[in-house]
Amino acid sequence: MTDLATRLHAFIAEDAGLDAAEFTADTELFSEGYIDSFTMTSVIGWLEEETGITIAQSAVTLENFDTINRMVAFVAREKG
Known about the structure:
Layout: H1 3-16, H2 37-51, H3 62-65, H4 68-79
Helix pairs in contact: 1-2, 1-4
């Protein structure tokens, strides 16, 4: 995992009260019920703070935010 993915993985585990070994960078976190909308809101805030990007509500889709790898790819696209 990239540095961002590793830090995001740790943040999600802590915020959602999960064991980090329970999920990987490819686990569908929202679709499979690992996180809920409250945790997703925290994740978006964390990503904005960590990366300096602003995430539009319309960009928060399963295609962009269901896995850690999708989130990291989204950030990379946004940062250009």
